[in-house]
Write a structure and sequence with these properties.
CATH class of the domain at 3-170: Mainly Alpha
Largest sheet: 7 strands, mixed
Distance between the termini: 76 Å
Number of helices: 21
Number of strands: 35
Helix content: 25-40%
Strand content: 15-25%
Oligomer: single chain
Length: 734
């Protein structure tokens, strides 16, 4: 059926026009309806639909774009919520507040709902664009970086369509009557195509008709034609350094509407296991990486062996039986191996011995015949294949020879259709080797894109060194909260949203940086503080009983919010009693006749302080002064009621595993081990903490943020809470 979109000229339905254009649904335009009339679809059958959200839902349901109205009923419901929210952007007084809310929501998201463009994105995009110069000012102000990133991404993806619509219907003051078409001046072109560079500065790279620009470009990338891979070796757990590679792959895939695959580089059976495969997949899921498929380098072993034989027959590779140490020395000195000029027939004969894992074959390896005089030592005849009789974790003892990473990676990248291989800059000298091997193989060239390796202060990222801590009992496992593994830092209380923001703030810089943990934990605090519930704990050792003479004869209970500014945190029951517990440090800081504030209750006046012969405070006596002002008191104290329902807590604090910010080259990490990396403190907690779940984050008033590692089981077993750094870390030893 033919469709006519009718509306009032003074209020064009930008979202419906944009959605129809993006979805490829042809509509004719009629702007002759009276002012105040709802936008209407008039079908050639005589049927009509009225109202902007009704029109958007119709477009969403009939569009050929996948999941344009959600992939299931739940996502459709989420989209409906955004359609109902969109009009807030047209309310002058609420515009910036709405921008702030959406900016926070988009912190770790590419789209508003699900993992693809929907009518929710079109509705909010149109609401922003419809504000004309007001929104353009916000884009330039850097106040809403996530919102601007999202807006620019959609603008670039559908630039021709959306630029045409905004130039027709949006003026400097916002939505209004269609604007007469005219040639754009340079200033308007910059507004239409402005993007932000990696530092968040406004950039004018995006001229009309040029290739789309992003915050960081991939060389030679085309929108819709980018395929990336995250290729960990299954020989350990994913750590924060690997996370940068994984998240950057996803970032670029989303930027260019491309794909990411996960490939396990399983070419060394001596180090790898299915346990590590499973843990890596778990960590990749934790990071929120959306990958197309999982592959294994071992899937390509037959083709890799064929390629090795092809290179041998072409004289581009040879079998070498030089002892390993001698080979290394010859490579350093640029001395050719005595086997380098063996005939292809002799090499093929020895290759068969390697495959059979014979005594003779075990003495040999395959090397590429590149250039032994090249100043770049990675090109001095690198090893392509080695014998290894150890069974493989996936395919058992089928093979006795295994390709090196240097040989397998450029081949598998090419045949899997990878367009860009992201590698950390530590591999820079091997880039020339990668390209040369692809050239000798005769496969398609894959672009290498370098980024700086993520190094953290006081942190070891070497799998070998981390394994030492596990094997020597210095930590409790790969998920120990002192470890830089994904499982370790998440167990310690880091939100994945914070990690994503931390890594993307660095971008794909090639500069080597030693990053501070405090910066990451500061970002984390900003995420958890607005929403995590508040509870109370009192350090058990030396705690002091305060008797309120005029306190309640019978305990009573009040239901109060777990977070005064966030209703979603729920409520808790607080019991008020005549006798209450306070911490020894607080008891020692008060004076007779001093007025104090008891948090969540009111003021009280301390009348008597009893001490032992050593000056330690034994007990306090006071009276309530609830009409007193909290503004006049110096001390605001946390407290707990004297009751049997209090829970036992074990508060755990952690420190760095080494005492030096950065190890020097050749320095042994064992020489700088931190002797004190864990501190346990016994405490009492309010009864509401019996309901804490494992992984739940909370704030203990006046103590900081914690994550529940072991929830309540029985009164005799304490709840274990791990302290979450807040960016102002003090070491345990201090």
């Amino acid at each position: 059926m033919d469709i006519k979109l009718s509306f009032s000229a003074d209020s064009p339905p930008l979202a419906a026009i944009a959605a129809a254009e993006v979805a490829g649904i042809a509509v004719s335009i009629d702007s002759s309806l009276p002012s105040g009339s709802p936008p209407t679809f008039l079908f050639s059958s005589g049927l009509e639909l009225h109202g902007i959200n009704v029109l958007l839902r119709y477009i969403g349901r009939t569009a050929s774009i996948s999941d344009f109205y959600g992939r299931d009923a739940f996502e459709s419901g989420q989209i409906d919520e955004w359609l109902e929210y969109a009009p807030v952007l047209a309310s002058g007084g609420e515009f910036e507040g709405a921008c702030n809310y959406i900016d926070g929501y988009l912190l770790a998201r590419t789209f508003l709902v699900g993992h693809s463009l929907s009518i929710a994105d079109i509705a909010i995009w149109s609401g922003l664009a419809g504000n004309g110069q007001r929104w353009e000012s916000c884009r330039k102000s850097k106040k809403f970086p996530n919102l601007v990133r999202w807006f620019n991404s959609i603008s670039v993806e559908y630039d021709t369509i959306l630029n045409k619509i905004t130039s027709t219907y949006v003026g400097k003051r916002g939505l209004g009557k269609p604007i007469a078409a005219k040639a754009k001046g340079k200033e308007q072109q910059l507004v239409d195509h402005q993007t932000k560079n990696a530092n968040g500065d406004v950039s004018d790279k995006g001229k009309a008709g040029s290739r789309p620009t992003f915050e960081v470009d991939l060389p030679g990338a085309e929108v819709g034609n980018v395929r990336l891979r995250f290729a960990p070796e299954p020989s350990g757990y994913l750590h924060i350094g690997h996370s940068k590679a994984a998240l950057l792959n996803q970032y670029f895939a989303q930027r260019y509407n491309g794909q990411v695959i996960v490939r396990f580089d399983d070419t060394n059976p001596a180090k790898e296991s299915n346990e590590f495969v499973d843990s890596l997949l778990k960590d990749i899921e934790t990071l929120g990486i959306k990958y197309e498929t999982v592959t294994y380098t071992s899937d390509y072993f037959p083709k890799l062996m064929e390629m090795a034989e092809k290179l041998i027959s072409e004289g581009k590779a040879y079998v070498d039986d030089t002892p390993r140490e001698q080979m290394q020395k010859e490579r350093m000195d640029g001395i050719e191996s005595r086997c380098r000029n063996n005939s292809p027939e002799e090499n093929m004969k020895l290759w068969k011995e390697m495959i059979a894992s014979s005594e003779r074959g075990l003495q040999c390896c395959i090397r590429g015949k590149l250039d032994m005089q090249d100043p770049n030592k990675s090109l001095r005849d690198p090893v392509y294949y080695r014998c290894n009789p150890i069974p493989h974790h996936r395919i058992g003892s089928k093979y006795k020879v295994y390709p090196t990473y240097d040989f397998a990676c450029p081949f598998v990248d090419a045949i899997e259709g990878i367009t860009h291989a992201l590698r950390s800059s530590e591999y820079h000298d091997r880039n020339a080797q990668y390209y040369r091997i692809q050239e000798d193989m005769g496969v398609r060239k894959v672009e290498i894109y370098e980024f700086s390796r993520l190094n953290m202060v006081y942190t070891l990222l070497s799998k070998r060194k981390l394994l030492w801590f596990v094997q020597n009992g210095k930590v409790d496992g790969w998920d120990d909260p002192r470890f830089p593994t994904v499982q370790g830092i998440v167990r310690r209380g880091l939100k994945i949203e914070a990690l994503i923001q931390f890594i993307l703030e660095q971008g794909a810089s090639k500069n080597l940086n030693l990053m501070e943990w405090d910066k990451l934990w500061t970002i984390n605090k900003k995420i958890i503080d607005p929403v995590c519930p508040r509870h109370t704990a009192v350090i058990e050792e030396g705690s002091v009983l305060l008797t309120l003479i005029d306190g309640p004869e019978k305990p009573f209970v009040r239901i109060i919010p777990r977070h005064k500014k966030y209703e979603g945190a729920g409520e808790k029951a607080t019991t008020y009693t005549r006798q209450i517990w306070i911490e020894r440090a607080d008891a020692e800081s008060v004076s007779v006749d001093e007025e104090i504030t008891l948090m969540d209750w009111g003021n009280a006046i301390v009348k008597e302080i009893q001490k032992d012969e050593h000056g330690n405070v034994l007990r306090l006596t006071g009276i309530l002064h609830l009409e007193g002002s909290v503004k006049t008191t110096k001390l605001k104290l946390t407290w707990l009621p004297e009751m049997s329902e209090l829970v036992n807590l074990s508060l755990m604090e952690f420190d760095y595993l080494i005492t030096k910010k950065k190890l020097e080259e050749g320095e042994d990490f064992i020489d700088v081990l931190n002797p004190c990396t864990k501190k346990e403190t016994a405490a009492l907690g309010d009864p509401n903490m019996r309901n804490l779940q494992r992984g739940e984050i909370l704030q203990l008033e006046r103590k900081g943020y914690f994550i529940c590692d072991v929830p309540f089981v029985r009164p005799s077993k304490p709840i274990v809470l791990f302290a979450i750094p807040d960016g102002r870390q003090q070491t345990v030893s201090k």
